[in-house]
Design goal:
14% strand, alpha/beta, globular, Phosphatidylinositol Transfer Protein Sec14p, single chain
């Protein structure tokens, strides 16, 4: 299979999964770029394919508009959905300056403990140019509606279900309780000995 054909298939997959979608506005009138992390098949997509897709399909629609990113982290797993630190940095560095200037906020939904620690320890250095200062953690959808117009944004059902789980089991926010449906109320057995400051996992 040719490289061009492989790239086309990868871009078609990104489009089909609707990983990136521009729709709705926040309460400051900024267009919303919604990104669903769980839908990103990182093991099957290279950083080059992602950059090409963004350059051709997304950035041209944002270049002259104020916008905000709504990133939904719900259900993200490092082994499945995380492209890697170097790839993420490469993608960020490739964003055109006029697009970066028009980015006004990043709403990070359901961040989880590891994502918070990762960004707290390396975010200020990693995302140069002020992006870290635009980051807004959103632990519940009810808090999102304080910033985003609810009736203009489509939220996947699995995100709503997870949000409801968090209401009844708040320790899931801190990785102290399993999110497996068959062990409600049981402490997590995943890897209690792993340091909180480990950057090997962003989920």
């Amino acid at each position: 299979m040719s490289t061009d054909h492989t790239v086309f298939d990868s871009e078609h997959l990104i489009e089909k999964l609707q990983i990136f979608r521009i729709h709705g506005k926040d309460k400051h009138g900024n267009k919303i770029l919604r990104i669903i992390g769980k839908f990103l098949p990182a093991r099957n997509l290279s950083a080059q394919v992602l950059k090409k897709y963004l350059e051709e399909r997304v950035y041209p629609r944002l270049a002259k508009k104020r916008f905000a990113i709504l990133y939904i982290h719900t259900g993200v797993q490092r082994s499945e959905n995380f492209v890697g630190i170097s790839a993420l940095r490469s993608i960020y560095d490739a964003i055109p300056s006029n697009v970066k200037e028009n980015l006004k906020a990043v709403y990070f939904v359901h961040p989880g403990l590891q994502a918070r620690l990762f960004l707290a320890t390396v975010g200020r250095l990693f995302f140069h140019g002020g992006l870290y200062g635009k980051l807004r953690y959103v632990s519940r959808l009810d808090y999102l509606w304080e910033h985003v117009r609810r009736n203009e944004i489509e939220i996947p059902e699995f995100v709503i279900d997870h949000d409801e789980d968090l209401e009844f089991r708040p320790m899931m926010d801190y990785g102290l309780e399993s999110d497996h449906p068959r062990v409600y109320g049981a402490p997590s057995l995943d890897s209690p000995a792993v340091s909180m400051y480990s950057m090997r996992c962003i989920s």
